[in-house]
Amino acid sequence: MRQKTSLIPTLRTVSEAEMISHQLLLRAGYMRQVAAGVYSFLPLGQRVLQKIIDVVRDELNRAGAQELLMPALNPAELWQESGRYNTYGPELVKLQDRHGRDFILGPTHEETITDLVRGEVNTYKKLPMTLYQIQTKFRDEKRPRSGLLRGREFLMKDAYSFHADRESLDQTYEELYQAYVNIFTRLGLNFRAVEADAGAIGGKGTHEFMVLSDAGEDTIATCEACDYAANIEMAEVIYKEQTHEQSSIPAPEKVDTPGKKSIEDVSSFLNLPSNQFIKSLFFIVDEEPVLVLVRGDHEVNEVKVKNLLDASVCELADEETVRRIAGVETGFVGPVGLKEKVKIIADQAVQSIADGVMGANLVDTHLVHVQPKRDFTVDQYADIRQIQEGDACPRCGGMIQFERGIEVGHVFKLGTKYSEAMNANFLDANGKEQPFIMGCYGIGISRLVAAIIEQHHDENGMIWPINVAPFAVHLIAVNMKKDEQATIAEGLYEKLTKAGIEVLFDDRFERAGVKFKDADLMGIPVRITVGAKASEGMVEIKLRRTGESAELAHEDVLKDLPNWLQKADQ
């Protein structure tokens, strides 16, 4: 492709972008913003997208999946049938047609694929079956940010598998899991597969694929000693029971704590360690209040609470609800002497607290000398806190550490969540109707563009892995006004193109400094420069990643290039 007539509008600076990937994609002319969280991919960006799609498609086809394409515009009835129309959240883009019929723009397609399969597959003999698409998705993010990492319109690969039994689902899950490992490896990414929560998709058994990066929005708990990795929402906390002498602890006593609501403030005021406190928080779980207790130096994990109670919705109660139940605002709440009887759940570490401190359900007042089990009753103890750095690994007992990650893929075992809700059944070997057992497998295609850049860049610009680079070679004629340079450059462009090498030919009448800055910014793996030594028949070849370079006769470029491309791939 000739750069002189290409749409590659490079910029020296951008002011609206914070993430490195966002800055570089705008500066290098790979994309342009249309609206907040909505982007146009320009020719270079589109070529990268297509390279990623080619890798994804190759591995999915190899795993036996079949590609189809479903509509982005979906009737609301399908989502009402599954129950997600009112529970998915405000990110769901809802609209009406001219006849007043309700539709949504698909953020994901579980309902649509379930509707399709229930109408076309009615026997176990057609199972298992895995179907996938690569399509634009829509989510009305409240604060679209970070460029392609959190947009309102994005490109996604979503796959769905249908099975007659759990063993078949487990097998396909492993096959797709391995396909994802292959994909992200081929894309040149440093990633981890972590145990995760299914979120709004639903289902049990799920892994997220995280690209390790300080720019990531997700925190991953990993073990220093083994390969354990989990999203912080799902990381299991190991509890070691502690015993103490209950008879030596006095009866609960009220103490004044004027204006002291936070654990930190009360701890400082009473000169007591935070791990002696019991933090009490009200949550609304499927419209019912639940009091959740954790140790003062720990944080509640809402996902664990939601999963423990098998709830659809779990959110922190507002202050009006807290006052209605406890008579005071959050900070002075505790399980002793509540006005209303509510379900109480506590983290397992709470039961080991001796001589504890908690809210007294009175303004500016706390209780000291509190003893769990003796002074209040908990309906259920469970692991409901956030894991912390330094905690023991649940697999090997090693030390937990935190890393940041960008989620680029997610695999779920949906089970019968959608097939039962939507009456999607097949006839088994005995002629009996059974609900399809399903799996779901997503990859953020456009998000991968940004994730790759976050791991592959330097102060001068992008450094594309060769499998996804828009071009393999950037051919630069330093001065197209000099006949010897123009002649050699044109000849190389023709030879390389005929040999099937993807080449971006900078044939612009621009200064050499501009051309080299743009080349570094664009990040194409191999650069061939036709410059001052063209009169001697010599050109320079250089690797973008390492800076390694050499001079060679222009007649030898086609012969030596495969070696340089191989180096670029290492």
Describe the protein.
The protein has 570 residues and is of the alpha+beta class. The chain folds into three domains: 41-235 and 401-446, 2-Layer Sandwich (BirA Bifunctional Protein, domain 2), CATH 3.30.930.10; 246-382, YbaK protein, CATH 3.90.960.10; 471-568, Anticodon-binding domain (Rossmann fold, 3-Layer(aba) Sandwich). It is 25% helix and 29% strand. The chain has 13 helices and 31 strands. Strands 3, 7, 8, 9, 10, 11, 12, 21 and 24 form a nine-stranded mixed sheet that branches. A five-stranded mixed sheet has the order 16-14-15-17-20, covered by helices on one side. Strand 5 (93-96) and strand 6 (102-105) form a beta hairpin. The longest helix has 21 residues, at 166-186. The radius of gyration is 29 Å and the shape is globular. The two termini are 26 Å apart. Its EC number is 6.1.1.15. Keywords: Aminoacyl-tRNA synthetase, ATP-binding, Cytoplasm, Ligase, Nucleotide-binding, Protein biosynthesis. This is Proline--tRNA ligase. Homodimer. One of its GO terms (molecular function) is transferase activity.
SSE topology:
Elements: H1 20-27, E1 31-35, E2 38-41, H2 43-62, E3 66-67, E4 73-75, H3 76-82, E5 93-96, E6 102-105, H4 110-120, E7 129-138, E8 153-163, H5 166-186, E9 191-195, E10 206-212, E11 218-223, E12 229-231, E13 253-256, H6 263-270, E14 278-285, E15 288-295, H7 302-308, E16 314-316, H8 319-326, E17 343-347, E18 356-359, E19 365-370, E20 380-382, E21 400-415, H9 417-421, E22 425-427, E23 433-435, E24 437-444, H10 445-455, E25 457-458, E26 461-462, E27 473-477, H11 483-498, E28 503-506, H12 512-522, E29 526-530, E30 538-543, E31 549-553, H13 557-568
Parallel strand pairs: 3-7, 15-17, 17-20, 27-28, 27-29
Antiparallel strand pairs: 1-2, 4-6, 5-6, 7-8, 8-24, 9-10, 10-21, 11-12, 11-21, 13-19, 14-15, 14-16, 18-19, 21-24, 22-23, 25-26, 29-30, 30-31
Helix pairs in contact: 1-10, 2-5, 2-10
